[in-house]
Each structure stands twice: as C-alpha cells, then as structure tokens.
Automatic annotation (TrEMBL):
Name by which UniProt lists this protein: GNAT family N-acetyltransferase
Span of the signal peptide: none
Taxonomic lineage from the root: Bacteria, Pseudomonadati, Pseudomonadota, Gammaproteobacteria, Oceanospirillales
Residue ranges occupied by any N-acetyltransferase domain in the UniProt entry: 14-149
Species whose genome carries this gene: Parathalassolituus penaei
One of the Pfam families matching this protein, by short name: Acetyltransf_3
GO molecular function: acyltransferase activity, transferring groups other than amino-acyl groups
Length: 189
C-alpha cells in the first residue's frame, strides 16, 4: 500500500523514497545544509531512512519525499522534503527540506506548497511549522514568508553545532483557515 503519493509541481515532483535512491540521497547528505550536521560516511546509512519513511507514513508520524527537478522522463533527485513531528490532535506538522546547493528557493517553495496542499486536503492539517537554523541560507526565510509562513518564535542557542557550540533557531508557522486544493485530486471527482 502506498501512503506517500507522487505529487507534481511546475519544474519537478515529489515522490516516495525508494531503495534505488540511495546514491542520489547520499550526494544530498554529503553537503548538509544545517550547521553542525556532518556528512554521512556510508551510503548504507540511508537504507534505514528509506525504510522508516514508509513506516512513518503508515503510522501518520510523518512523511518523506524525494524532491526531483525536471520534467517527465528526465528527473534528477536534488533533495528531500520531510514532514515530521506530526501531531494529529493539534492538526500540526513540521516541514523540512534538505537539498543540494543547486536546488533553488523557487523549487523549494513549489515543493513545500505541493506537500502542504496534500497534507491539508488528505489529513486536514492546518498548522505547518518550519525551523530555520542560524547559519542556513538566509534566502530560505524570505522564501517561507513569500509562501505564507510567518516568524512565530526565536529559540536562543536552540541548535547544537558542536560539543560546546550552539546557534539560534527561528520557528516559522503557516496556519490555514481551510483546506488548500489537493494536488492528487482529479477534476470532476
């Protein structure tokens, strides 16, 4: 049974992670975007992440999508969209994108919007969070506000980057009043 759908957007798609994605995912996690995050040492470390992505979706604890750029028949995996800390009673979930440097803000925004549309329509989630860690690309903050997120909190020294070093975290939220269109819905159904 497929719990994580493939969703298309202008310029790319998100789709369930698969075992054959391991090498492309390894490239992504060789260039971590979060301060203090170390590059993976062994591609086999990703096997467990791929397995867990199915379990997370099946138990409504989260979802993970491969983020691919391109068009039909010519896609390249450049990142991962993660949805975690799913709190069904609060209709809340936290989103994250890990990507290669060439994955620009416009494609990240389109992927986030697509995933939000699906999660809102399918699971009626209304409260979407995103954490920006000091040291990440500052353009991500502008991208988040452009698609409806607003800064809701700053956590001083909330992210550990080394044994004795910490940086601040900014928490952004997007609250929805109603469902946004489901990108998997077909016209007339």
């Amino acid at each position: 049974m497929q719990f994580t759908p493939e969703l298309n957007f202008d310029g790319g798609r998100v789709r369930p992670l698969a075992a054959e994605d391991r090498d492309a995912l390894f490239r992504v996690y060789q260039q971590p975007e979060l301060p203090g995050q170390r590059p993976l040492q062994d591609p086999a470390q990703l096997d467990r992440m791929i397995e867990l992505s199915v379990q997370m979706a099946a138990t409504q604890r989260g979802m993970m999508w491969a983020l691919e750029v391109g068009s039909e028949g010519n896609y390249e995996l450049l990142g991962v969209v993660g949805a975690f800390d799913w709190q069904p009673s609060m209709l809340r979930i936290t989103l994250r994108i890990d990507g290669l440097p060439e994955l620009g803000c416009d494609l990240r925004a389109a992927a986030l919007e697509t995933c939000i549309g699906f999660l809102s329509s399918k699971y009626h989630l209304r409260n979407f969070a995103f954490q920006w860690v000091d040291g990440q690309n500052p353009a991500y903050r502008d991208m988040l506000t452009r698609i409806g997120f607003s800064l809701s909190a700053r956590q001083r020294d909330g992210w550990r980057t080394a044994e004795q070093t910490f940086v601040d975290v900014e928490l952004y939220h997007r609250l929805l009043d109603q469902d946004v269109p489901d990108p998997t819905a077909r016209a007339g159904e």
